[in-house]
Please model this.
Amino acid sequence: MWINQPNATFERIDPNPPDAPTARRGAASAGQSIHLPGVVAVVGCDGSGKTRLAKDLVAALRQERPAERRYMGLISGETGDKIKQLPLMGVALERYLAAKVRRAQDMKKKVPGPFTATIMYLFSLWRVRQLGRLKRRAQSGVLIIAERYPQAEIAGFHYDGPGIAIERSNNRLVRTLARREQKIYERMAEQKPALIIRLAIDADTAYSRKSDHPIAELRDKTENMPRIKYNGSRIFEIDATLPYDAVLATALNAVGGVTRAI
Model:
């Protein structure tokens, strides 16, 4: 039974409005899907509390059954923290790499060249491998709480979609990689979690929590991420500006509602 909460709503919203960066119209047909009953994904803008919620869900769920968190993004904040801890140049190196990543992820800019596009394509292949590992763990009986989840509706690593996008370059190799990458994300998007918990937040609140992120980037994410349908997956939206205890309790109830039958 679906659980209705006063501050959480289930909604399916049409993606790819005219002003949104697109991967490809009609991508990831909802008619093609593989259900993953042992997987729950937590998605949302930076600052919405994805990492904390995913960790706390696992801690609570482990009291009843095997459960683990899987990070399904490409470069996590945890990775950045580890780089910062390197001696002498750690902080400077993390800032340099973060700037490079943001430039590559900016879908309004051209991909610098075939080398960068190849690296981005390899990142996408790595994500395929991570999804394969996630599926095997879920099939073994472990309940997986995935932090972030791939989709093929809106282009951009920021949205966990394809990062190259064919319209970003006129280079033949880059465009070939973009087409192949799009197909990769369509295949990943066919594999639908039992539930997607989407944490809704406004850009100003997100910035107050993640002031190291450009406010323009956060505004872009808060505007476009709610438009992603995740190939017709079941989506449970929670207001992430609520007190955290309420967010966690609501999420636990939602997870329980779809996993009791597993």
